[in-house]
Amino acid sequence: MIITEKFYIGYSSTNRNLELSDSAILKMFEDVATMHGEMAGDSVKTTSVRWFLTAYDVRIHKRPKLDERVECRTWSHDMRGFLASREFEIYNADGELVITAASNWARMDIKTGRPERVTPETGERYGTEKDRTNFEGPWIGKLKEPEEYQISKEYYIDRNFIDANNHMNNVCYLDLAKCILPDAVYEKKVTSFEIMYRKAIEYGKTVTCHYSELSDGCFIAIKCDGELMSAVKFGLE
User: Looking at the domain that runs over 151-236, which CATH code has it been given?
Assistant: First the structure.
């Protein structure tokens, strides 16, 4: 089952170059994934079962621009245990495939705080399509921390970071990671990014972002009390 939704790229969805921003990409993904969950009976309004992101791998082949209309597609790629893999595509008005993404999720019951196993019926409701993919496999590998960091900076997690699940929204991890980028790096073109979500960050916490340059981009670790909560790797041109 492929879920399709059209989006208009308004000013609030663009970066300083008037192109579709990285955070707007993730918001599109969040919306169509939630739509699929609603259709499959996992409504966030009526059930305590939630899908929590554990990883993203986003590849940007061409950025749509302000005033364009795009089509976002998503489908369930694989499910096992309490884990799931989901893919996304964004097509521009000319029908070109301009952005591809893979994501991994964990199924949890927020009332008990325990993993919720995926049943065969769950896969049927989501219409899982194991043969449809733009990636090498359904499961995204863990990001490995570099040996050293060049910059570190603390940030306070205020209410505007928090979503309906009472922790920092997945898009905010990306936005926070971008805050520590040096000006010269921030100006570069982002061609891909990976995000690893290890633990939820809650309101009122103080986190430290650590930045490291890589040969093909940069790596940002987000830590709380010395513990790695999330990591973001940007591919830069």
Answer: 3.10.129.10
At residue 139, what is the residue type? Answer: W
What are the two backbone dihedrals, phi and then psi, of residue 17, each rounded to the nearest 5 degrees?
-100, 10
Strands (E) in the chain, as ranges, are 3-8, 49-60, 69-80, 83-91, 97-109, 114-115, 151-156, 190-197, 206-214, 217-224, 227-236
Torsion of CA 176, 181, 183, 189, to 10 degrees: -90
CATH architecture of the domain covering 3-126? Roll (3.10)
Whether 11 shows a pLDDT value over 90: the answer reads yes
Question: What pLDDT sits at residue 110?
Answer: 84
Provide the whole-model pTM.
0.93
Q: Same CATH topology for 3-126 and 151-236?
A: yes
Greatest distance between any 2 Cα atoms in the chain:
50
The amino acid sitting at 152 is: S
**What is the token pair recorded at 124?**
């049927």
Burial class (CB in 10 A: 0-12, 13-18, 19+), 227: exposed
- List the beta strands (DSSP E) in 44-93: 49-60, 69-80, 83-91
Output the CA angle 120-126-127, nearest 5 degrees. 85
Q: What is the mean pLDDT of the chain?
A: 94
Domain coordinates in residue numbering, the chain: 3-126, 151-236
Using an 8 Å Cβ cutoff, are 96 and 32 in contact? Answer: no
